[in-house]
Task: structure prediction
Amino acid sequence: MHARGGLGAAVVTALLVQTVISGGTYLVAKRALAEVPFATLVLWRFLLSGVVFSLLVVLLPGRALPPRHAVLATFVLGFLAGPLNQGLFFAGLQRSTASHAALLYALTP
Result:
């Protein structure tokens, strides 16, 4: 089945951009670790992602905040996905090469 019109091209373009960003993440992060201390890099990445998320909550239409009963779970998941995940990512990348880190991530089920 062939995608018709601009939507198919837009999807392919978005997928290509995502692939380039994903592939470049390891190279950029490894270089950043050579220039910036580990803890500082994790802090800035967490702060930047928080600002971007807040902007999305404010700018996107519709209900953006979780229901009251899910607020605690949202904060716990935010911590696991933010500082813990990125901290482990940078800690592993600091002890490895960018290509090994990318390969290990690609092999994760």
In short: DSSP finds four helices and no strands in the chain. The mean pLDDT is 86. The helical segments are 5-35, 38-59, 71-94, 98-106. The first helix runs from residue 5 to 35.
